[in-house]
C-alpha cells in the first residue's frame, strides 16, 4: 500500500501530464464534467449514498464488475489498465471481470480526457482513459474509484478542518472543482495520501494542509490504506 505521498496539488510537482485533461469542463465528445473528471447527466448525482448507486455484492461476498476494453488501446495500455484494476482488487472484495453477457458493465474507451460517472448507473457505463495521458495504472485507479462511487477527497464535507483551499490560486473557471459536498466519510479520517484528489495545473498550490505544511497531498501511484478501507466499508467486504 502507498503510505508515503510525493505530489503537491500543483502542476509543477506532477510527474504525469494528465492534470490538464482532468480539469477540462467539457471534452470534445460533449460530456459535461464536474470537479474536472466526474461525468454528469440528467440522472447523475453528487453523492453515492444509496445502495442503488453501488455495484451489486454477490452471495459469495465479492463485488464482480464486468468490463470491456476498447480494441483501440495498445497492449501496453491494456496491461496498465489491468494493473490499476489489480491494485483495487488487492485487499478488497471488488473483482473486475471481462464482460461476457452482463447487462451492467464498464466500457473503457480512449475518448478525450480522463473521466468517469459516479457509482453504478446500469447498462453500459463509459470510462474515458485517453491514451497515453490517462492509461497509467494510478489514473485508472482514480477513475475506477469514481465508478465505485467515491468523490474527490477535497470534496469531503469536513475538509476545511484539514486543508485550506487557496482560492486566489485557482482560475475562475475552475472554482467549481473545489466545491464541498455532503459526504458519507464512512468513519474514516481525512486522507492526505488518497489517490482521490483532483489536481490543478494553475501553477501554484491550490490545496494546503492546515496542520503540517510539509505534508504532501495526493498521488497517482495506487490506493492508499484509507482508500482501501473506504472501499471495504462501502461494499461491506468484511461483513
TrEMBL record:
Enzyme class, UniProt record, top EC level: hydrolase
Domain of life: Eukaryota
UniProt GO MF annotations: metalloendopeptidase activity; zinc ion binding
Cofactor detail note: Binds 1 zinc ion per subunit.
EC code(s) of this entry: 3.4.24.-
Span of domain Peptidase M12A: 43-238
Database matches in InterPro entries: MetalloPept_cat_dom_sf, Peptidase_M12A, Peptidase_Metallo
Annotated active site: 143
Gene3D superfamilies listed in its UniProt record: Collagenase (Catalytic Domain)
Swiss-Prot/TrEMBL cofactor(s): Zn(2+)
Pfam families given in the database record: Astacin
PROSITE patterns tied to this protein: ASTACIN (PS51864)
Binding-site residues, Zn(2+): 142, 146, 152
GO BP annotation list: proteolysis
Keywords: Hydrolase, Metal-binding, Metalloprotease, Protease, Zinc
Protein name: Metalloendopeptidase
The encoding gene: hce2l2
